[in-house]
Every structure is written in C-alpha cells, then in structure tokens.
Amino acid sequence: MPVPSSALAHAYARLAEVLPGLDITQPVTDAALPRHGGWVTASALAEGGAGLDAFLAWDDAQVLRDYGQSARPDVVASFGLHRYAWPACLLITVPWFLLRRVPRFPVTHVSYDRTDPGAPLGRLAARPASFACLPGDPAAGLPGARVVPDEEALRAEVRAAVAEHLEPVLGGFGPRMRRRGRALWGMATDEVVEGLWYVAHLFGDGEQERARHELELLLPGATTPYVGSAAFRELTGPDGESLPTRDRASCCMFYTLRPEDTCATCPRTCDADRLAKLLATTA
User: Fold this and answer.
1) Strand residues in the chain grouped as ranges (E)
2) 210-255 confidence digits (pLDDT tens)
3) In what order do the strands lie in the sheet with 130-133?
4) Is the overall model pTM greater than 0.90, yes or no?
5) Pairing of β 110-113 and β 122-126
6) How far apart are CA 63 and CA 254, in angstroms?
7) What whole-number distance in Å separates Cα of residue 51 and Cα of residue 236?
8) Beta bridge partners of 126
C-alpha cells in the first residue's frame, strides 16, 4: 500500500522553513510524476539520453552566463550531478535526522525541476515506495513501514536508500563526467555529508554538531560503495579557537573556472587557505 504523506511531511516542512529555496512535494498515489516543462524524471537522468542532454544544457548556459566562459563537458556534467544529488540526498537524510524514518525512493519515484526562479535550489516531486523506522515509532503501523531493530540497522537503511536512488543516476552521468566507480561514489559521499551538515546548521540549537556525530556513525569508513568516512576534523584558529572542517572525497571541478576560488573543504585547498576561508565566514 502507498506510504501516506504524513509519514514524512513534518521533516519536509521543517526543511522548507530553513531552506525555502528547495521545494519538496509528495504527489498523491494515482498522480503521474511531472515530466514536462522544466521537469525531468530521475529515471530519465539515469538513462543518460535526451533527458540528460536537456538537463545539462541548463548547466552549460548557466556557466557561460555567470562566468563569461564555457566549461568543459565533463565539468558541466559534474555541476549537473551535484545540483541534483545534493537535494535528492536530503529527501532521505532529513527524515532520518529529524524523525528516525528512512524513505526509499527508486528513480521511478522522483522528478526534479530547477527552472523555477521561486525555488533556486529546485523543486522535487517525490513519492516514497516505503520507509524504515524504529520499534515504538508511532508511524510503525502505517502502510509502507518496515520496522528495523536499532539505530545501526537504521543507518544501514540510510546507506542502502541513498545507494538505491543514486546508483542508476551515477550510471547516467558517469560517461559524461569521465569518472567511474570510486570517483563517482566519492561525489555521492560528499553530497550525503555536506548536504545534511549544512541543513543542520540552519536548524540551529546545536543541530550541526549532532549532525556531525550522526554522519560519523553513518559513514565511519569501509561502508561500500561509499568512499572513506565523513572525514570531519578540527583546525585551530589564530586565537586558539576550534574550527570544524572536513576533507571532501571528491573535487567539484570549480577550480577549472576559478582556480583561486576553491571551497574550504576542497582536497585542493591547503589548511592555511582553509583557515582564512573559515575565519572570513565566521566574521
């Protein structure tokens, strides 16, 4: 039986409060996922054909508009994957973080539109196929619920749910990016970690630190197909203050457009530059 929208609604409503640029809806059971206008289904991205061509044309035009130069096709594909995978991972990690419920979204259950100026991070129409939860969860009796015994089993569900959704999508993007296997899953690892870590900061009340702890348990290393661990660490500022950072498992390729403007977690950024970027952000 279909999963009622109420199982995940609170998590997505909370996300909308702090991240209004991302719009998530849960279509009713008998409604087709949107696939016209600016919408593209996740399954079309996974197929790697005309749907992916049209999707990446948006990134190609955006790079030229914003930076006055064209990017290499593999760089355009890397940007496109990031812009899809970052919010797609939140479909799974936010309900887990806030509700201890882990939905499953096969690629046939998600559509994405990033052409609406009212939702600069995009719109997701997503229909869960099922969800995992813990014993004692009031939602355990709902249609589509699967009860797992403990927190570690629930973490395994998160890893499996993200992999189920992203593996075919990575297969569609991979040839365009000139990346395979480990490099693609390095990107997926970064999207899982950095998406939730960022959103938890917006939740406030110490939630970013809780997210860091949860992500370290989720990705401790040797959790294939993911690459490495959550990779958080501390840097020490000029006044002895502790500044959290992490080491990305992959590079987003932005340096090919602006070599001097890498992110603070980029593997190409040395610790001295990381400190400068973190201190500037704090200031």
Assistant:
1) 22-25, 39-41, 101-104, 110-113, 122-126, 130-133, 145-147, 232-236, 242-246
2) 999 999 999 999 999 999 999 999 998 888 888 889 999 998 888 8
3) 101-104, 130-133, 145-147
4) yes
5) antiparallel
6) 10
7) 46
8) 110
